[in-house]
Protein: Aldose 1-epimerase
Amino acid sequence: MSRAALLPVAVLLCLALAGGANAERKPVGFYGLENKKGDFSIKVTNWGATLVSALVPDCQGNSADVILGYDTLAGYVNGTGSFGATVGRVVNRIAKSRFVLDGKAYRLFRNDGNNSIHGGHRGFGKVIWTVKEYVRDGDTPYITFFYHSFDGEQGFPGDLDVYVTYQLSGPYDLSIRMNATATSKATPVNLANHAYWNLAGHGSGDVLEHELQLLASRYTPLDDTKIPTGQVVPVAGTMYDFRTPTPVGAHMDIVPGGGGGYDINFVVDGQQDAMRKVACVRDPESGRALELWANQPGVQLYTSNWVSNEKGKAGKVYEQYGALCLETQAYPDAVNHPEFPSSIVRPGQVYKHNMLFKFSN
Structure:
């Protein structure tokens, strides 16, 4: 991609935030970052602090965009798959759309049967973020987005100031840093990046032959509404054992749901709040590989089970299993499971979620 193409698109649209005719209006655009060599770049948008694309070379030096997404802002506004979005205030599901915190019951927006998922119908992936800093030059270009989540938004308590920074921290490294500060009340916080990865290139077919390794020897089983039971059990001897590199589709026929694919949280080995290796993914055909590091206790593996006939970038049509998501996170529904690591952030505390995506070929 040329450097000219990486410049921010002039204001694409001014969207009104919720609040009627007097709502605040903010510009929405696309912004690019590129390494000095010019063979690794990303594009993001302040709609949902979303990762739009990542151009990565293969073993022959041929670049491909390895993230599913849309060419236009309208795709992200109307899309339902959270492609590349920053998801919150709480990613994943909260049982029965309710929780009790400090003796007070809170009810959330139901958008997954009786459950709440990904922060509600208008979570952080469906709002306009402010561009706080945008540095395109230097060895480690970056962009920082900011969003103020108000007390009661989607049912969650307290004001929350959230920052997300995308940075090319190495020649082929992408860092994502998420910080959130509770300013008035205690609140659950569990942010994630919802990129859909296909290392052969978006729209190139399924990822069932991608080799996946998860540094996770345990997982959190689910009930029939995809809510954790509260158990934490070993992956050994199950279809969830990816401790050694294994094709994603190797056990798909025995995954619950009649081959419906993976959508479950794994418990990352090692110290919970320390940066450590979470996963490795490799596409045997292109030679592209991705190594993920993070500081969160869990990682959700999702294999695009519900993607079907989705019109994406460059005229591509995305189908089931056309990508995989590796969403580092706190355990799902942690707010209703005191036996899980806490996801509560209290006033003055800072939530920190760091990710590092290291690409190679």
Helices lie at 3-6, 73-78. DSSP finds two helices and 30 strands in the chain.
